[in-house]
Amino acid sequence: MSSTAKPTPHNVAQAAAVLQRGGLELLRQLVGPWVFVGQIPNEEGEADWSFRTLSARSVKFTANNEDRVLHDHDRMLGATKARQGAFMNTLLIGRASTNDLYVPHSSVSKLHARVRVVSDDELWLSDAGSSNGTEYGGEALAGSVERRLIHGALARFGVIELQTLETKRLVPLLEQLALP
Fold first, then answer.
1. What is the model's pTM?
2. By the 8 A CB rule, do 96 and 78 touch?
3. CA separation for the pair 150, 154 (Å, rounded)
4. What's the DSSP call for residue 86?
5. pLDDT digit string, tens, across residues 32-84
6. Does domain 12-46+58-178 have CATH number 2.60.200.20?
7. Is the dihedral of CA 49, 120, 142, 137 positive or negative?
8. Domain coordinates in residue numbering, the chain
9. What's the pLDDT tens digit per position in 130-147?
10. How many angstroms separate the first and last alpha carbons of the chain?
């Protein structure tokens, strides 16, 4: 039995290539309506994809009135549900590889945080009782506190800081990175 599953991009350069080949709809099918983008170092402090030959291209953009830089080698975690079941409208974030958003770092709990999906335009982030805490937009999330995801805001899971980006608003940045 052959699989017809399309490969999910793991970094921004791969997402730019998907965009060039199949457009926004294919990219949204693969990564969902939102992505978390940033560096996830291994325990030695290096990015676990540093062995790949990638260019050092980057593009500057403004998020929340602050300049940010998006690099084509940044890790990209798509906000898609890996499996169906009892928690169909909840994305699980954590160090365990069974989570929907897998963040392999020792400062991240096995189940660290949750994203409640109301619609493609409305996602809410909460901490799942993690050891090292979850922050969003510089504010700690504790107990039952939830924050609505907004394009460009920073989320911190343990020591890992990732930027939340709407896939449709990520497209112009990917197009800039895809230019020769």
1. 0.82
2. no
3. 9
4. T
5. 899 999 888 765 554 444 444 445 678 888 877 778 888 888 888 888 876 66
6. yes
7. positive
8. 12-46+58-178
9. 999 999 999 999 888 999
10. 39
